[in-house]
Amino acid sequence: VRRSHVGSFGMGVATAWQGKGVGSRLLGAALEVADNWMNLHRVELTVYADNEAAHRLYHKFGFETEGLLRDYAVRDGAFVDTLTMARIRKPA
Q1: Are 49 and 5 in contact (CB under 8 A)?
Q2: What is the pLDDT along the chain (92 residues), one digit of tens a residue?
Q3: pLDDT on residue 91
Q4: Are 87 and 42 in contact (CB under 8 A)?
Q5: Could you give all domains of the chain from N- to C-terminal order, each with its CATH number?
Q6: Which of 12, 42, 84, 86 gives the lowest tally of CB atoms within 10 Å of its CB?
Q7: Integer angstrom CA distances of residue 78 from 22, 72, 81, 88
Q8: Three-state secondary structure readout of 45-84
Q9: According to the model, what pLDDT value does residue 59 have?
């Protein structure tokens, strides 16, 4: 299966910088590279299911939730769910 059209993305913003537009600027810059340098058609990521601020950010940039991954990660010693999300670039 050929997947050269797909890229995975992950990011984090330090607590002190949250709510100040840093996430939007980071994600905007990453998608600029994905679209205009790497020519990716699909960008995918996983995010903690309870991170509503991140969900809003990703939706703002066109990401859609594709699925729930139950007990996918361990955070603070407990299993937590994550969502898998993707953004499909529309043809110009």
Answers
A1: no
A2: 688 899 999 999 999 999 999 999 999 999 999 999 999 999 999 999 999 999 999 999 999 999 999 999 999 999 999 999 999 998 77
A3: 75
A4: yes
A5: 6-88 (3.40.630.30)
A6: 12
A7: 28, 10, 10, 32
A8: EEEECCCHHHHHHHHHCCCEEEEEEEEEEEECCEEEEEEE
A9: 98
How many CB atoms are closer than 10 A to CB 82? 20
Distances (CA, A) of 37 to 3, 10, 33, 40, 53: 16, 18, 5, 8, 28
Structure tokens at 2: 């050929």
pTM of the model: 0.90
Q: Which positions ≥6 away from 5 have C-beta within 8 Å?
A: 39, 40, 41, 42
Q: Are 80 and 73 in contact (CB under 8 A)?
A: yes
Residue 13 makes CB contacts below 8 A (sequence gap 6+) with 22, 23, 26
